[in-house]
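Narrative progress, year one. The postdoctoral researcher (J.K.) led the effort to move from monomer predictions toward full complexes, under supervision of the PI. The following entry was the first complex the group processed end to end, covering 947 residues in total.
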Amino acid sequence: MPKLQLINVVKRFGNQTVVSGVRVDVAEGQMLVLLGPSGCGKTTTLRLVAGLLHPDDGSILLDGRAVAGPGWGLPPERRNLAMVFQSYAVWPHKTVYDNVAYGLQLRRVGRAETRRRVQQALERVHMADLGPRYPSELSGGQQQRVALARAIVVEPSLLLLDEPLSNLDANLREQMRVELKALQRDLGLTSIYVTHDQAEAMVLADHLVVMRAGSIEQEGTPEETYLRPKSRFIASFLGVTNLVEGHVTHLDRSMGCLEAPGLGPVWAYVQDDLRSRIVAGDKACISVRPMELKLSHLPCSGDAINQFEGRVVQKAFLGELVEYAVQVREFRWRVQSHSSQRFVPGESVWVSFPHRSATIVSDA
Amino acid sequence: MTTQESSKPSGRAWATSERDGPQVVTRWLTVPGMLWGLSTGILVLLVTLPIYHLVVASFKTPGGLSLSNYTQILYVRRFQEAILNTVVLGLVCASFGTLIGALLAWLVSRTNVPLRGFIRVCVMGTFVVPAFVNALSWVLLAGPNAGLLNRLWMFMTRSGKGFMNIYSMEGLAIVSVATVYPLAFIFMYNAFEMMDSEMEEAARVLGASGARTLLTITLPLARPALIAGFILMFLETIILYGAPAVIGIPANIYVITTALWTLFEYPPEIGLAAALSLPLLLITATLLWLQQQLIAQRSFATVQGKGGRWQRTDLGRWKWVAASVACLVIVVTFILPNAVLIAASVLKQAYRGISLPNLGLNHYQYVLFEYTAGIPSVRNSVVTSTAAATFAVIIATVVAFIAERNIARFGSVLVFLAMAPLVIPAMVFAVGLVAAYSTGPLPLYGTLWILVLAYLTKNLPLAFMNCKASLSTVHVELESAARILGASPLRVLKDITGPLIKNGLLAGWILVFAHSLKDLGASVLLYTSKTTVISTAIMDVFYSQNWGAVAAMSVILLGINAAVVMVGYRILGGNILTGGRGV
């Protein structure tokens, strides 16, 4: 049985529907990441799970028991959850120790046991020595660690994280990302993590759910979602990509062909559910990640069906990678290749990629 | 899957964030719903009922409803004079008050004038002194023959007459200006603080002189604030009661507020008083609205810019001249009057000057142990002010909570009712209270309750603004975090929200207490011999010309007020002095 189930959950504010029929399961011990641009309903979904809001329709099941349904819900204090907020929400009038101990006091845990568990939680977040400090004496990163310790110390049945790292600076964010993932995995905490940062989502998610305009656009593992996007929106939201627009000319069991104006035919993988929805002549797109493209001085002889001759027009050194812009007739490809391979602007090159590296996506 | 039937009607999550839009209570039989109902009921009783009775009373005549009260007000000569005097006094004080306030504010906030801190603290200090006490001190200073300054003048010039008579229109204007200009100072100070000096620097870089920059950049930028300050000064002056009562009445110069008071002499003429009050209410409401419009204007937005980064204008050789002018204002309006007052309270014989054998506490002994109204008035003042402050903070907290946390529909109605007393002059409100509570189901007139109602309602906006401000600093997520960890709403209030807004509430309490203690205008219409308070007792000894007792009681009043404000200052810092108006 899934730890948490959201069944066709709907939430409206006035006459605006913010969450429209979200259906998702979270398995025990899993970290589910809700990813989407701002205003897509991901935070509202999280607050519905928390019990800070109640759904207008649908139901929410925790451990198989309904905790919310149309127009009602258990209050948050009766759901045994913990939540980490974007604003840290560390109580400024309590010491670090008292912040972490508060949830245990509410659960009437004994004094010695409280002391032991608080200390353990603080050690987990590397804050063991800072118990007597007040939040105003801590940095943002330290405050977020306190918030995390406060959440894990109560051993919640579900940990909710609302963009917890977005107020930290870039370096700290990346470090905390890794720590957070390790902590969640070690403790086996079932978690829901809300973010608008796709890189963060990739690192953290066991299961990635991309939301758009109140509903789920695509879900799956980060790899699947990244490499096999279903829509143009997902393809571009999850990172840099080459999007070729055109009309479908041919559909096979796992392969399709698009006629792109100003470029010619392009072959790509087509997913089952998309194949059932489109027919030859429809508008569609092909998404190819810059890393999947190969540059060479001579045409390839291998399995790469897609080959185009063009000219290098720009080169940008990114460290391990070099990014090239290659003009092929009216289309400009973005290609990333390892620094060992050298091309110079103005040079004539071949761009090639096998059909499996590219995916046909819906035009929306 | 079975749903838990028992949990269905559970209370709504009241801790929501603005990001998610308002979470509205739709059912009334909930805790927030009942709180809303209760606070609306109380506010209607407090604010709407007296105003309703005021309007009804103004039309009531022995022969039924008519406009005759209004026609009397318009055609009786002494009311005509009072209205004219009010307008003249208002315009004069607004002009000079704005001028002095703006000048001091500019010096202190934007120039390198010496003694800036001292000047600021002294101007702030005037807020502790009730307006009528200030006027009493001025009589001690500039009374026709006995006034200290006049005697000094007679001694030095050997003339038989003093150089100024405080009992005149000029005297009234001077004392009124001295009473109201600190408000203009605060208002302009805030405006200047917000102004980015880069605008002035830009002018200097382009070659403008200091004076030219002041005239072409600073003043035009500050113009909306100056006009708004002028309106504020005018408003404060026309509702002033202390100076007109102490100085105007002996000189036979009446303004609207003192004319109102005369209508309460036996037999009281509530109808006329109401008819005289309503136009005053309309004027203050309109002017305050106008003032708000001015502040909200786009041009003012420049003044309200980012602030913070600025450099002081160097006054060069002129800085000592400027400091002297500022200090003269301070000495004349703050130091001298209060010094004279304190001196008069400890001198056995006022005319014999300061010498050791002439010093004594006999006036204090008199007001505390011999004067029958002495101790009771102090007790009544403390009791009513404490009650008013406590109730005001409780009501303000509930309303602020509902408004700030969106926990009930129509929160804005509550906010409107809580802020409405801002435009109602205290005396006008007192007339309404008399009309509402002298007869009928709640005959509160003659009890301390009516004083509590007046103080509480008049100062509710102050308490509300304070509570709202301190509540808005508590991020909703601080509360949500506790809810999710297992705390019930009441537990959150006790463990999280309560401790975090405690200081803000205390500040609100102190403000309401201090303002209640200072009040004379409302008290003078509402007190009876059994419910006299310090301010009305001081006026009683003033009418019997017992100056030692006047001084001693005034010092006691100042002492209580200053002590409470000091406690607040220790806890909260400078804002407490200005009545939450900033600086």
